[in-house]
Specification:
This protein has three helices and nine strands, in the order E-E-H-E-H-E-E-H-E-E-E-E.
Length: about 150
């Protein structure tokens, strides 16, 4: 019996896979628990449409990531921060602050989880911060930390 898995099933496969299982296992276990549906022509077509939609969504995400990486090359994000007398910042510049500044200054939306800081920014100056978009696409955010007046 051929079935399309609607959930991950241990020992059988992942969600969305087409599997050949024994008749009893399919009828008595998978189908009643809604872990799978029979592989009819309608269900097969629905599976193919879902796969196409998923591939299109991944391609769109990849294109957006490439576009954001290209935009970051020509952008310098200015972040104003308070500091003490020795030029050291009170606290540090976080990835959330960098993300918010990018959105406010240039309209580029990047989630804070994608911004990778090796060392915290605790002084004034210019820094290059790495940004991982996924799909092996990386970018660099140029950050300029200036004194808040």
């Amino acid at each position: 019996m051929k079935v399309i898995l609607t959930a991950d099933v241990k020992g059988q496969g992942k969600k969305g896979e087409l599997k050949e299982v024994s008749e009893g296992y399919g009828r008595n276990y998978l189908l009643p628990r809604k872990l799978a549906v029979e592989a009819t022509t309608d269900n097969m077509n629905a599976l193919r449409l879902k796969e196409k939609a998923k591939a299109a969504a991944i391609a769109a995400e990849k294109a957006k990531a490439m576009e954001n990486a290209k935009q970051l090359e020509s952008v310098v994000v200015k972040i104003a921060a308070k500091a003490g007398s020795a030029g050291k910042l009170f606290g540090s510049v976080t990835s959330q602050e960098i993300s918010d500044a990018l959105k406010a200054q240039f309209g580029i939306e990047i989630e804070k989880q994608k911004i990778v800081q090796t060392d915290p920014i605790k002084n004034f100056g210019s820094y290059d911060v790495k940004c991982k978009f996924g799909y092996e696409i990386n970018g660099v955010i140029h950050v300029l930390v200036v004194e808040e007046k």
